[in-house]
Amino acid sequence: MEQMDLVVRGKLVLEDEVISGEVGVKDGKVAVVNDTYGSLTGEKTLDFGNAYVFPGMIDTHVHCYSNPDEGIIATSKSAAAGGITTFVDMPYDLPNPINNVDQFQKKVSTVEEEAVVDMCLWGTIAKRGGTDQIVPLAEAGAVAFKMSTFETDEYRFPRIPDSEILKAFNLLRETGLRAAFHSENDELVVDMLKGFQEQNKVYPRAHMESRPPVTETSAAIKLMEFAYWTKSKLHIVHVSHPRTIELVRMFKEQGVDVTAETCYTYLLLDVNDLEKYGPIAKNNPPLRNPEDSEGLWKYLQSGDIELVTSDHVAWGLEKKISGKDNIFKAASGMPGLEVMVPLMFDRGVSKGRLTPVQLAKVLAQHPAEVFQIPNKGKIAVGYDADFTVIDPEQTWTIDQNDFHSNSKLSPFHGQTVKGKVMQTIVRGVTVYDGEDITVQPGFGSFVPGSAYKKALVGRI
Fold first, then answer.
1. Per-residue DSSP letters for 278-331?
2. Cα distance between residue 203 and residue 194, in whole Å
3. What is the pLDDT of residues 107-145, one digit of tens each?
4. Domain containing 332: what range?
5. Domain at 109, CATH number
6. Section 357-384 average pLDDT
């Protein structure tokens, strides 16, 4: 047997089963997978005993630059410490969104210089007249395109008009890439926000009450109907209510290629936590009722929700504290890269709500498949040797002050978790050893999307 660069032993979480075995790594790729120990030799051997060796976890919903003080170094260190081997960064950067090739290529250069794990990049379009950038951005390596039916900022995070959405869907169909949407009904939300604030209903729960489920479901229906007629691929991000998944199932039955994600926050928190923690637990769409969270768990267990993401955004205290007496003044979002995987292991696998294979599907395999990320998402021959190793018996306490992120605010602060990330391995190299980041910025690589055309990029 050929000498391996690395041999990894443990409870391997494969596509359809968990085996006690070993993986041989050569040139950063999985070369051999064995269901026995001892037949492989390597320059280095990592024996994790009864710990789970998952495929490298993937988070497809991350915001490095919504807060420009955060950036790629801090975000990718958070990812590594949280067991994330690849993440896909959103395009709504400050000061300029990634809606043209020039901005995209600048960001690729920054990724190559600063990332400590592998990264893909989303593209987006301007509010009007931006669809001409879709094909060039796809060929430059965008993995997918993020758009919104709700307007956070006219320039950076705009509501895309229906006429532009249809143009975008038709162009994206030709590239083979997926359109993903922040799905909230702008007209309804804006009117309700205005009414609540005029009546001085600014308590934490008002964030949910002013964005009832119909604001999500009505926007999702429109998008799925557009996808039906254009025969394009659609992804609904951060689903907060089970009714949206019921609609997704209906459109799937009619042949629409639509997928959906929820965030770990919608599974693990509810509106009672919004009342308890206030601005720290504010995100968009809002946290829902406990029964809605339970409904999402059922759809996750049945496979109707393809993936789980963090929607990581690193706001500092000043962006949150402004909403202390008025929830509408607080920024939306919270850091999640560092805690999502262990929390989902604890609340899912340790509590018996998910099997290790199910967890691997929603946090590794399906993210790679939905967004066509090459060579990621499985422990299989020919795939990148990306592994997330979790000790299922180790108990620890979340301390927001230890986050690698500049944001030291989390509603999970102080919670006890059973299941700890022992190591994060990217292309056969340990980037996090359970205590420290072990590589320098620039180790991580930019991973281009499936429409990437290397020969054309230099001529764009």
1. GGGG--SSPP--HHHHHHHHHHHHHT-S-EEE--EE---HHHHHTTSS-GGGSP
2. 14
3. 999 999 999 999 999 999 999 999 999 999 999 999 999
4. 56-370
5. 3.20.20.140
6. 98
Using a pLDDT cut of 90, give the percent of the chain over it: 96
* Token pair in block for residue 103: 């901005």
Which residue carries 């996750």 as its tokens?
Answer: 300
Number of helices (H), then strands (E), belonging to the chain: the values are 16, 16
Residue 456, pLDDT score? 55
d(CA 326, CA 206): 10
Which of 186, 180, 143, 144 lies closest to 258 in space, CA to CA?
180
pLDDT at 459: 42
**Structural contact between residues 90 and 104, judged by C-beta atoms closer than 8 angstroms:** no
Q: What span, in angstroms and rounded, lies between the C-alpha atoms of 417 and 401? A: 16
Q: Identify whether 137 is part of a domain.
A: yes
pLDDT digits (tens, 9 = 90+) for 270-307: 999 999 999 999 999 999 999 999 999 999 999 999 99
pTM above 0.90, yes or no: yes
The number of folded domains in the chain is 1
Tell me the Ramachandran region of residue 372: left when phi exceeds 0, alpha when psi lies from -120 to 50, beta otherwise.
Answer: left
Q: Which residues of 256-280 are buried (b: 16+ CB within 10 A; e: fewer)?
A: bbbbbbbbbbbbbbbbebbbebbbb
